[in-house]
UniProtKB/TrEMBL annotation:
Pfam families: NusB (PF01029). Residues 4-129 form the NusB/RsmB/TIM44 domain. The gene is nusB. This is Transcription antitermination protein NusB. The keyword ATP-binding does not apply.
Length: 140
């Protein structure tokens, strides 16, 4: 349950930073305290937040490429930030199995997204998982 809670807290940080242009460290500290995320789980959440932000430009380009009828700026912000987080896991965290990253993302959008969010997010992430080696090789 620790990583799930850490992942959810990381999503909350990304969502708030994306939505409100908030200062990352302050939002991170508050989110971890509110959810009681400490120790190795806090380190995991920190890597998830900063890693996602570091590679956001590449991650957003992949989302744009795969979501033909949706402009990323017009997507539901929950869907957008959950996909960013999951794509960071898929592309840059080889210690996390792809099915775990996708399942955790789908669980997050079931909780916070809209009725169509699980299918949409699962579809985009599934396309990346099908060609994961190529996406990883493309680097970034």
């Amino acid at each position: 349950m620790g990583r799930r809670r850490a992942r959810e807290a990381a999503f909350m940080v990304l969502f708030e930073v994306d939505f409100g242009q908030a200062e990352v460290e302050a939002v991170f500290a508050r989110a971890m305290a509110e959810r009681g995320v400490e120790g190795p789980d806090r380190d995991f959440a920190r890597d998830m937040v900063w890693g996602t932000l570091r590679y956001r430009e590449r991650i957003d380009a992949i989302i744009k490429e795969l979501s033909r009828d949706w402009r990323i700026e017009r997507m539901n912000s929950v869907d957008r930030n959950v996909m960013r987080l999951a794509l960071y896991e898929l592309l840059y965290r080889e210690d996390i199995p792809p099915n775990v990253a996708i399942n955790e993302a789908v669980e997050l959008v079931k909780r916070y997204g809209g009725a169509d969010s699980p299918r949409f997010v699962n579809g985009i992430l599934g396309k990346v998982a099908e060609n994961l080696a190529a996406y990883r090789a493309a680097g970034g």
